[in-house]
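FAQ
Q: What does a multi-component entry look like?
A: The components come first, one per line:
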Amino acid sequence: MSFRHQARLGQLLAVTVALIVGLTSCNWKQFTWGHIGYNTGYAPKQPIPFSHKLHAGDNKIQCLYCHTNVEYAKHSAIPSLNICMNCHLLVATDKPAIKELQQKYFAGESINWVKVHMLPDHVKFNHKRHVHRFSKPEDRYVACQKCHGEVAKMDVIEQISSLSMGWCIDCHRNSEPKGPLNCSTCHH
Amino acid sequence: MIERKQLILGNKTYKEITDDICEPVESSPGRGWIALFFSAKALFLFYIVSIGIIVCTGMGLLGVNHPVGWGTMIVTFVFWIGIGHAGTLISAVLFLFRQKWRTSVARSAEAMTVFAVMTAGIFPLIHTGRPWLDFWLIPYPNQRGPLWVNFRSPLLWDVFAVSTYATVSIVFWYVGLVPDFATIRDRAKTNLRKKIYGILSLGWRGTGRNWSHYEMVYMLLAGLSTPLVLSVHTIVSFDFAVSALPGWHTTIFPPYFVAGAIFSGFGMVVTLLTLVRIGFPKFKDYITIDHMEVMNKIIMATGMMVGYAYGAEFFIAWYSGVPYEKYAFINRAVGPYWWAYWTMVTCNVIIPQIFWAKWARRSIPIMFAVSIFVNIGMWFERFVITVTSLHRDYLPSNWGMYAWSRWDAAILFGSFGMFLTIFLLYLRFFPAISIAEVKPMLYVGRKSKDAKGGHGGH
Amino acid sequence: MENTPVDTPNQYWKSLDEKYQTPEFLKTLENEFASSPLKSEDGQDGLARRQFMKLMGASVALSAAACVRRPVQKIIPYNKRPAEIIPDLPNYYASSWFDGTQGLGLVVKTREGRPLFVSGNAEHPLNGRGLSARASAHILSLYDPDRLKGPIFNSVNPKKRRNSLRADAKWEQIDAKVAAQLKKGDVALLTASYPSEHTQSLITSFLGKFSGKKYVWDTMTTESLREAQKISYGSAVVPSYHFDKSLLTVSLDADFLGTYLSPVHFTRNFNLSRNPEGKKMAKLISFHSVPSLTALNADDGYQVAASQQLGLALGLLQRVLAGKGTGLTAELKKFALTDEQLGFENGTLTTVAKQLLENSGESLVMAGGIQCESANAINLQLVVNWLNSALGNEGKTIAAQGSYQGLEGKSSDIFELMKQIDDGKVKTLIIHDVNPLYSLPASLGLEERLNKVEMVITTSNWMDETSYLANVVAPAGHPMENWNEFEFANGVHTIQQPTVRPLGDTRSFEDSLIMWAQAAGSEITAEKTFFELLKKKVSGIVGSEAEWFEYLQKGFRGEVAQGGSARSLSSAAASQIKPVDSKVEGLELVIFPTVHMTDGSLANVSWLQELPDPVSKIVWDNVLTLSPKTAKDMGIKDGTVVTVEVNGATLKVPAYIQPGQSNKVAGIALGYGRQAGMELAKSVGVNAAQLIQSVDGKLQYVGFPVKVTKTSEKIELAITQGHNSMEGRQIVAESTFKGYKDGKTGIHRHQIFSIWGQHKYDGHKWGMSIDLNTCTGCSACMVACQSENNIPVVGKKYVLQGREMHWIRIDRYYSGNEASPDAVFQPVLCQHCENAPCETVCPVLATVHSDEGLNDMVYNRCVGTRYCSNNCPYKVRRFNWFYYDGHHRKENLHMALNPDVTVRTRGVMEKCTFCVQRIKDGKNTARDENRPLKDGEIKTACEEVCPTSAITFGDLNDKDSKVSQMFASQRQYTLLEEVNAAPRVRYMAKIRNTDRVMSSAHDANEKHKEEHT
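Then the predicted structure of the entire assembly, as tokens:
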């Protein structure tokens, strides 16, 4: 009788110890729970199967040719349709996707792209600042890559970085020159 | 020489003691208990619902506003934490001082402590604007950099102080219960009962080794929790003392709060034990009038300490020469919240003075009434400190009043529902007096060592 | 509807809907603006709970499994991006706004084509950078959910028109119907003053075509001023006032700093001569019935009943003339009042007259505004003209050159119009820019007359009191949607260019005229639209296309006309003064405008409704103000409901005890009690216009007997300021000009020491200085801040519970005796303390110091313990008790949100950030142009709109910056220095130019060892 009781107690202890050890010893950075709520690897299907691999990769089109905004503004803005039309009035006009694109353009409509890199409203990220800091005007791709990964190799665009606060801070702490670490740098 | 008073009346035998104390646990409840329990439970449910609504709608439902950022919730939190002091004091400190009379009241006092702390613990959690993010107050590894908590903030000290206190007092209380659980287990008729209490008693066999370990642990825990008696409320008082607000920014707060806490704690013990005595008449032999009298003495003593603190505050306010400080205290006494202040003084300082009279100390109705007043008074003390200091501070343009709403009332009374529900359950499922500790006291102050002889008396 | 601010009695219905029990009204009964957040049917707060559930749901889901995704979001790019728009870069447009009597040059900030923020046009000769609270707020009326979405044709039979049966119409239909009607001729146009020659000439030619006549009327009338000018000087102008040249300004109830004529311009000028560092400092003496902003800023103030204004003026004139060896006619002497008749202490008038004479040519006597529209209005102005001429101020501090243009409202026009209608000479009545059924008393019988007119057309943007009874409502749209050009002051032309495409299907009044004329077959201009007309005309003046664009960029052309000689007072003027004996036994009524409401045209703007009245600090209500003595005699307390009766017209309104008010008067503010079309304003206050009296063809606002009777009811007034006295604490340090010259600043400095070292700042170190001497309390900063920082509005119910959200507030303290107290204003915002008490107590580090000395508030980290607010000595932190920004989400209102500032959710603390988003933008621009930041380049919202530049923000590490110099001034002091929170905001002591011996309350109450500097 007494034995069983003590045994029960033993088991109880063992489990608790195991839990405590387990939780404290695991590395939170890699720990999958550490990415709860972060969209790493998010690669939704887009209304028009636009391929960065084709455009930026094979055809070596500069990022800034389409994403003009990054030079001037916080948002890197999706290009407006008239930019697509610069080429696609003539190029690949036989492809169904391009037909749809043209039809939408001439109808004066737009395309509802699915947003891939989502930051909460309370985070104010400034593309211009980062692009200017990490790259020369002739090759902005260097900067873009840092966060967006090898876009030129992606058929479907995918979120590479966790975009978690820790991820931002990491860079602000360690990169040279260091980035500011004020709360109001990103939150206001 | 004065001969010792009997600690346990009615010439009990050991068996009788066991029977008496186990009776509530083994018999089925009477009407009174059921009625009490269900009314308390109803109040508890009401409490849960109102908390739900407040959390889902916003703190705005309560009277808290600008400038009075803290209201009923914090007031009631401090109130309950205060209640939760007598327990540990009785069980730990008095134990270390070898106060034999503590044995029969210790168990319930501790229980009260645990439940009070549970009740109190709710408030800091729900009083925040975004309760679902409260876990941010816990320093845990996170993906924000990581972003740690602010160890300079008294609120954080609170988190640690209260949780530590809760843990230790629960363990302390539980360890004390183990032998008694074993007793109930061994007396158990049904199998289920045997199992449950079997598990609760952690395989207690009552062997010599068991006892010696038990004594050791109990002693250690007593030593461990003694400083906590002081630390918890000291730190709770820091929530106020550390701030820059006139009326809060005071060095007297720690001792003042601790005294107040013990005061209110004993107040609540008396309230409950008088009820227990009524509910379970057999307990009268264990929780004797003498016990109550001793506690009443403590109430009066601590009451006067608190009274001294009130005085001291005013003196310092005047002596400091700080206009804001001065105004804060004048405002307490004669400002718009004068009624709260004077209720506090009356209940805490004046009324307990009646205990100078022995007959009053030994009269159940009077001590019950007084203990109720003490509870009210101590709630108001916290109200006065929190609200009246806030409602008129540095810049007159900010002055305002607390916008008391019906939700404040719901929260305040609801918390009593929670406390009572748990306490009533405890009375029915746990031995409300420590059998193991009472038995050694059986012969204290008794003439004949012959138990049987005692029976002739009846 | 337990939250209704004023429970108006039955005989005075709260809204026309209510009067007629229309379905709209019955619907609105359910959702009050500030209803309980528990009501699920209630828009904003029902949203709160749903939002909360969503949050909870999301967080639970996310924590449940790592694979759960956030809800899918879409990005929708432009089809063809307009060249001038780069997403998230603001564009700025120079424009303007005409507000009743005052014209302002604006710069409108737009983002992705929607106006977000207005500031003054720094170069504009009138208001410069400064703005009025109303100007900052009028941007919200652009997004007003109650604005009509398009034209409406009211198809009910003309006999008893009700808007309950409305048919929304197409413009073509409207035009056709109107044209048909116009052909019948006999057109009347009722409009307000509008200083645009283009509009006016269009109107003239339009009316010419249809044998029409124009009737002009303004609520904030300048009629008597102009008539008196005509009599005295020959031309009916609204002269220009030069406060910068005046060393002594005597205001006879002229609220030129708050509501009279062009307050922003005046305030700006007025402060130029008030610099205490200079050898001379201008002085302001105010005689007032009800304290106005001007009265509270006066160095010396005296109470006088409205009926005594003329007597007082004559009294002054008599003494002034005596000083110059001439005198008054016996006739006028009779009316000249003496000190004891006015209840002044002996010699007051003589001293004032003496001071006036001493400053001959450098003084200014001023009367005007509706507070002076008594039976003697014109006489008063005549005497004032006489005074100014006698003192040789004419042509110096007051001049015909640069006069205010286009102010031509006449009350006689109203009566003329009514007569015409009675004679059946009006077939079509076009009402533009006025709301006669709201701003004129029902006793005039306008309503019945409108029903007689075959077709009534309003161009109102709301289904308001007048539109309600009109057949056709042709909304003219918001000023920000229309083109125009004004000549506010003689010589200055200011463009008004649209900054957003019309949100609804509205059409500017001018375009309507053109279209209607066309439809009626009689062209009034070759151009298709008013814009083309305007451009053609203006280009004709400015020249080439390039110059036209230059003009658009600059926003204005020309400058205020200067020079010219003083006009001579016509000899006939004196004989024209025919005083009416208007002696009043007992209480007399004064109807006055407030800084934020004035004529009530912006009553539906929640920012203004929740803006504390600078004088009384009351929100969401208008009240009957009584002097402390009067109130005491009548046994009336704050909030006691009283019935106000004037010749049968009665109002029920809560009373408010107003220190510094004349014992003989009861005051009530205009602009409240909107009855239709404005959901927000509907239940707020009562309409004082109902008490306006019409006496032989003139409208009187003040100086007639009123019967005030106390009722048993009581209403809680939402007053944002808890206490009006400084309780002898040094909060506002003040000194007299004399004292200051002897080196007394009234500041009492403490010896502060700290065991900690100071923080080091190698980069910027932001700081702000607020000059209490120039701050007039106009409250423009409060609204600008609200607009810039997405600050929610909470409604009366919650203001009563102390939950207003303003990041910057203006404290107004009285000192001295309550019969005639001195007032001081003090803007208080987050002080960004070095040793910030809030930072140490936040358990989650949601508020921390930045390396530029800012006290950052991180909304998304805040869990809402509210400890920071408790520990803040200045109590500048605001808590989101509910999901407040639900208010912004109503219909178009979300478009007013500034995307650079996070919209705070429920349960978090917020506070002034020193406009950190502006700081960041400023630094970014500097870095892009890689140059150091210029001083004054970054302006906080409050600083930007302040008419007197009382607020200065800048870098303290830059020794030459304006703010550093301010910090070095001897007037500079720290609020609550002894608490040693070491604020970043410093105040400059107030200097009062008076001969009275003033002991700053602080010294009087506290005996300190420290020396006074």
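Q: Is there any commentary attached?
A: Sometimes. For this entry: Residues 451-458 of chain B have pLDDT under 50 and may be disordered.
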